[in-house]
Amino acid sequence: MNFNSELQDVPPYEPGKPLELLIREYGLRPEEIIKLGSNENPYGASPLVMEAIAEELHRVSQYPDDSYADLKQGLARKYGVIPENIIPACGSDQVLEFAARTVLRPGTAVLLNRATFAMYRIYSQLCGAQVMVTDTIEHRMDAFYELYARNAEQQKTGAAPIRMIFLCVPCNPIGDCPPATEVFAFIRRINALTSQAETPMILVDAAYMDFARVRDTQREIKPAELLAEFSNVLYTGTFSKSYGLGGMRVGYGIGPEEMIGWMYRLRSPFNLTNLTYLAAVKALQDESFVQKCGESNFSEMRRYEELFQKLDYDYFDSYTNFITVKIHNRSAREICDNLLRKGIIVRDLTSYGLEALRITIGRPEQNDRVLAELSAIL
Ligand SMILES: Cc1ncc(COP(=O)(O)O)c(C=O)c1O
């Protein structure tokens, strides 16, 4: 058989370690395991969601309403946009794929932050695009702009044009978040430098925005404001983090109608199930759950910051539901393995080029145990 040789250069995505791995490899019981490696919501999901799903089980044999009208309506209300601006998907990950496939192909380039969500690179490579990365770990708009401007110059001598820019705000894996005004100013500068026909798609991945908003409203980017000003920006959101529906796989893109229309051509029918669709609709009816989770997230995060300060470990200021700490003297992998044997899953960031650990902020009693182990190990 002839496999597509372009796939050879595409690294498969490495997800955070699952619970089942520790049960299999270390013989631990599920109740002994604390899973803080994938930025899931440690408080689960809203009770409204749980009750609704239980009542919907009889519908497993039926296809869902492929218009997903209630979900689009709920999101349109939350964000002050219209349903035609919205495309629902199987996780926001699927929106990233649709977006990349809409504008990237061989002979084009894409611009990413040096440390950022791994799927941006993977989808871009799958489209045959050349990947360009900033040289800073922090999400710096000036670093993006410099590279973009240089590329605009180099196109005169044949460089592949940048057709897409992935912004991750707040950014996984270090949790930093530029103020909204900086992001808007950046988009204006990019658009001013490019002719209308050549403007790149700018994707604002807001997977952690609900957390940033709770900490500082100045960081919140509102899709309605993006839509009012730009025709080349796509905002992506997810139910996996703040709403606690990681296992349900629901995300969405919000953009100009024309862009959403192009993305719909790539969508397979029924990309949400009856249960995931209902879960997302119900989750939107309980914003107080999101607010409470956000508040307790940041008060618990303080405890990690205090420990790292006490032990003299550098960490990144985070606007998300995780905190990233730099490891010195030893490898992040060693510490991660050490914690794993004790039933604690955190994320080793070596594959992101960082000697660091990313820890999702857990429930208070989970954090008690993790902080005690970290004090002993670091
Ligand atoms: C920045 C970012 N974007 C997108 C995703 C994908 O999330 P999902 O596909 O669960 O919506 C993640 C998941 O961790 C993420 O960290």
Question: How does this structure look, described?
Answer:
There is one protein chain. The protein has 378 residues and is an alpha/beta fold. The chain folds into 2 domains: 5-45 and 287-377, Aspartate Aminotransferase, domain 1 (Alpha-Beta Complex), CATH 3.90.1150.10; 47-283, Aspartate Aminotransferase, domain 2. 42% of the residues lie in helices and 13% in strands. The protein has 14 helices and 12 strands. The chain has helices at 19-26, 47-56, 69-79, 91-103, 118-126, 141-154, 180-193, 209-215, 223-229, 257-264, 274-283, 287-311, 332-341, 364-377; strands spanning 34-35, 86-89, 109-112, 130-133, 162-168, 201-205, 233-238, 251-254, 322-326, 344-345, 347-348, 356-360. A 7-stranded mixed β-sheet has the order 2-8-7-6-5-3-4, with helices on both faces. The model has no long low-confidence stretch (mean pLDDT 96).
Task: Give the topology, please.
Blueprint: H1 19-26, E1 34-35, H2 47-56, H3 69-79, E2 86-89, H4 91-103, E3 109-112, H5 118-126, E4 130-133, H6 141-154, E5 162-168, H7 180-193, E6 201-205, H8 209-215, H9 223-229, E7 233-238, E8 251-254, H10 257-264, H11 274-283, H12 287-311, E9 322-326, H13 332-341, E10 344-345, E11 347-348, E12 356-360, H14 364-377
Parallel strand pairs: 1-10, 3-4, 3-5, 5-6, 6-7
Antiparallel strand pairs: 2-8, 7-8, 9-12, 11-12
Helix pairs in contact: 2-11, 4-5, 4-10, 6-7, 8-12, 12-14
The structure holds pyridoxal-5'-phosphate.
Residues 39, 91-93, 117, 168, 172, 205, 207, 238, 240, 246, 251 line the site of pyridoxal-5'-phosphate (PLP).
